[in-house]
Specification:
2 domains, about 325 residues, elongated, 6-stranded parallel sheet, alpha/beta, about 15% strand, Rossmann fold
């Protein structure tokens, strides 16, 4: 049939015979055809929408990340549509193979459940940038924090405070964020010639406050509790801190605690929580810069970006007086 007839079906024209519509839709299904609505609708080939797919929005880290990406995208003229995958493999595959709405120019995905091999099987050609500390297949742009180096720095900070029995609260894993943070922790222990004690590595199911609280209670019940704890994120560090308060354990006099992510809550906890602070603004800018290039037709080699981070020592490792001494201006 004519291009015009097919176009009328695609555009839901009211005066198309049911039989004709069925033939066109059958051909579309057989060819796996998806109309590029954004390219057709605007003279620059942009719909002006990006999709951001993250595992959760009840996590302060992902909420802050989404806010930064939304701000940076707005500066480039894009509106961000949010998709929460909950770390479900099927939801992540749906993102890889084409979002629910096709009126988007590009996708930012923070995968949690899928392996690099599964991601590498993606057939959809919509521009995409992957986020997070995990292996990614070749040919994919990737933006992440060097969690190994940052976690090593967090553990070394505890060592520098005189801690010698240092625990890790997170998860033993073969890939992903937990694996990298455990590797950094182990590297710091090895460099300080401290033993790796499996009794001091507490595995949790979800990186939440309750997990950190339960893990710290488990550590406090040991015949010889730790004198320092590296939590793989700030939510667990805050939960661990609460467990110490309830048990009458002085932080940091008896146990020093450090987390990862620098969520706002760490700056207002009592005591304030030491942490690793990723540059979320830099992460958002790098991600949007890569995605914009792909949307504009850049087909060059895939790019991997390491996001800057800083160690933020606060009261859970330094104590109140030392923290004040470091932050207040000199009166000399």
């Amino acid at each position: 049939m004519s291009v015009k007839t097919a176009s009328n079906v695609l555009n839901n024209h009211p005066h198309v015979k049911a039989s004709t519509r069925e033939r066109v839709e059958a051909a579309m299904a057989e060819l796996h055809y998806r109309p590029n609505l954004s390219a057709r609708s605007l003279k620059h080939g942009r719909a002006g929408f990006l999709a951001l797919a993250v595992p959760a929005m009840d996590s302060p880290y992902f909420a802050e990340l989404a806010a930064r990406i939304t701000e940076e995208a707005a500066a480039l003229g894009f509106i961000v549509l949010l998709d929460v995958t909950r770390g479900d493999p099927d939801a992540e595959r749906l993102v890889l193979e084409g979002m629910r709405s096709h009126v988007i120019d590009g996708v930012i995905l923070s995968p949690l459940a899928l392996s690099a091999d599964e991601i590498g099987q993606r057939a959809d050609n919509l521009p995409m940038v992957l986020l997070g500390e995990r292996p990614v297949p070749s040919g994919f742009d990737h933006v992440a924090v060097n969690s190994v180096a940052a976690s090593r720095a967090a553990t070394e900070h505890l060592v520098a405070q005189g801690r010698r029995r240092i625990a890790a609260v997170g998860r033993e894993a073969t890939r992903g964020t937990a694996s990298e943070r455990l590797t950094g922790y182990r590297q710091a222990l090895e460099a300080a010639r401290l033993p790796y004690d499996t009794d001091l590595v507490i595995s949790v199911t979800s990186f939440d406050r309750a997990d950190g609280h339960a893990a710290m209670l488990e550590l406090l019940a040991l015949p010889e509790p730790p004198d320092g704890v590296f939590c793989f994120n700030d939510l667990m560090a805050i939960g661990a801190l609460r467990a110490c308060v309830e048990a009458g354990v002085d932080v940091p006099e008896e146990i020093a605690i450090i987390g990862f992510d620098d969520i706002a809550e760490t700056r207002y906890a009592n005591p304030t929580v030491s942490t690793i602070a990723p540059d979320l603004t830099g992460l958002a800018r790098s991600t949007l810069a890569l995605l914009s290039r792909r949307i504009d037709g850049d087909h060059g080699p895939a790019v991997a970006v390491d996001v800057a981070w800083t160690l933020e020592p606060r009261e859970t490792t330094l104590g109140v007086r030392e923290r004040q001494r470091r932050t207040l201006p000199s009166r000399g």
